[in-house]
Amino acid sequence: MINAYNFAFFDEGSKREIRRATLKAIALPGYQVPFASREMPIGRGWGTGGLQLTLSLIGREDVLKVIDQGSDESVNAVSIKKLVSDTTGVQITEHTSQATIIQSRHRIPEVPLKKEQILVLQVPLPEPLRYFESSEHETKKLHAEKEYSGAWLMLFEQIMKYGSMTTGADHPVMVHGRYVMAPSPIPRFDNPKMDENEALILLGAGREKKIYAVPPFTRIVSLDFEDYPFEKESFDGKCCRLCGSEGVFLDELIDEATGEVYYQCNDTSYCYEILNKDEKAGVN
Amino acid sequence: MTEFEVPVLSIKNLNKQFGPGCDHCRNPEPLTLIKNYCSVCGTVYACRDVSFDVYPGEVLGIVGESGSGKSTLMQCLYFDQETTSGEAYISSYQNGLNNLFEESSQQKRYIRNHLMGKVYQNPLSGLRIDFSSIGNIAEKLIAAGSRNVGMMEDRGSELLSKVNIPVHRRKEAPKNFSGGMQQRVQIAKALSNQPPILLLDEVTTGLDLSVQASVLDLIKSLQREMNISIVLVSHDLGVIRMLADRTLVMLEGQVIEQGLTDQILEDPQAPFTQSLVHSLL
Known about the structure:
Chain B: Keywords: ATP-binding, Nucleotide-binding. Chain B: InterPro entries: AAA+_ATPase (IPR003593), ABC_transporter-like_ATP-bd (IPR003439), ABC_transporter-like_CS (IPR017871), P-loop_NTPase (IPR027417), PhnK (IPR012700). The complex is a heterodimer of chains A (284) and B (281). Chain A has 2 domains: 211 residues, Bacterial phosphonate metabolism protein PhnH (Rossmann fold, 3-Layer(aba) Sandwich), CATH 3.40.50.11310; 51 residues, no CATH class. In chain A, 29% of the residues lie in helices and 18% in strands. In chain A, strands 1-9-8-5-4-2-3 form a 7-stranded mixed β-sheet. Chain A has a 3-stranded antiparallel β-sheet with strand order 7-6-10. A two-stranded antiparallel sheet of chain A has the order 11-12. Chain A starts with 11 loop residues before the first helix and ends with a helix. The mean pLDDT of chain A is 94. Chain B has 281 residues and is of the alpha/beta class. Chain B has one domain: 3-Layer(aba) Sandwich (Rossmann fold), CATH 3.40.50.300. Chain B is built from 11 helices and 9 strands. In chain B, strands 5-6-7-3-8-9 form a 6-stranded mixed β-sheet, sandwiched between helices. In chain B, helix 7 packs parallel to helix 8. The chains are: A alpha/beta (284), B alpha/beta (281). The interface between A and B is medium-sized, with 19 and 20 residues.
């Protein structure tokens, strides 16, 4: 632990300001609360929003897990873990169930979250209506007036152009019947996990200077049409080539030499846990 | 006959000023203003005490020279601008008891989406130029609560063919279309939720004569077919003569004359109207 910095890198005033924004966000599920995004030792767009949330929340007792696109070991995840651990000395884990704070980029872990946990998601574009309306002044009004035709119109356009809704990630959701929210670029597969989730989900956009939240047990509905219902990615008949799991989000990998297509768990720690359990049980 | 006696839209004492106003121009003496402009504080009185009623199935024309407050009036009616003072009632909204200008912005949004359609002079203001034409029509339907893609596509295609846009071009963006086609897409969009009130702001200005004729023809036939009430703003007396049942003449933000269109055009009373009619080529 580096003592030259204050605990968790920030001065106490900064932490308090971020926590205050977070509290407001929790009180207004799905509403984007502006906050004074700090200059961070990592570049904007690399998870500064999530990192600021994590740093403002973390205490000595916390156990931290950081994931980047399902992986605990990618450069981004490792750098963030290093920074937090160097400035706080908290315990780091890869096990989803052992963590109290999970900072994640673009995935919700496969292991269901519990009520003691906080999931922090990194958000590049917090405004679900941005493509439809470029002015922040206008989108604020649209949110205030609950005028969300733009969000549906974007999906309608996709159906007109491609025959189905083509949001690969960041499929907009309605939070508690009030605010339409960008769930951060998680795959559609993870959208239903947000609904009535036991854990507190916080979303932070550092570059766009917004914090928003999904409190525990909040109703989350993915936007869709009567005749084009929301569907998550289907992995029917496919399983992880390493651990054999089904019904999880799989990465499609192609062996460039043979052209063979195979699938593998996107959530690496989940995959390891299954493999280790099998090993202990003597399956392999 | 009694059902015809209730106006669908009723405007009372609408005022719109740009600027704070001062003691000099608030003085009711008419000579304190230069036209509708106060030389002391720079306030422009765009609409002054405008009142009128629109009855079911009626086309009300508003004429006047440019700068007379016609478009500002239309913007106020569609809540694009806040009014300074005045009242507006729609018979199908809260039984015509609530002043629309005093409703919350959510309610105004509801009124716009469900009870009104507007066609702007410039198609860029009324359309999302990068979205598909059918998407533009769907936007109005989605706003009015529809969540069924099949229904919206059918309705959109039906409207586009009604305004003579080939159905195979429905997925094309209006930016690829000519000005006349864009204007017709705008009309289709405005009609999509079958509003009882349609606001047309200089719809044919800038279109060539043959397209003008077909757009006017279209509006006339749609209006007859669907029995919509229309408020039509134009500085073109030809358009007014063809479409409007009744006409208001505006000058410097005030209504100076009103009556049956034929009456206004054949026997204008106010000097301004006389010169307007006589300058008709």
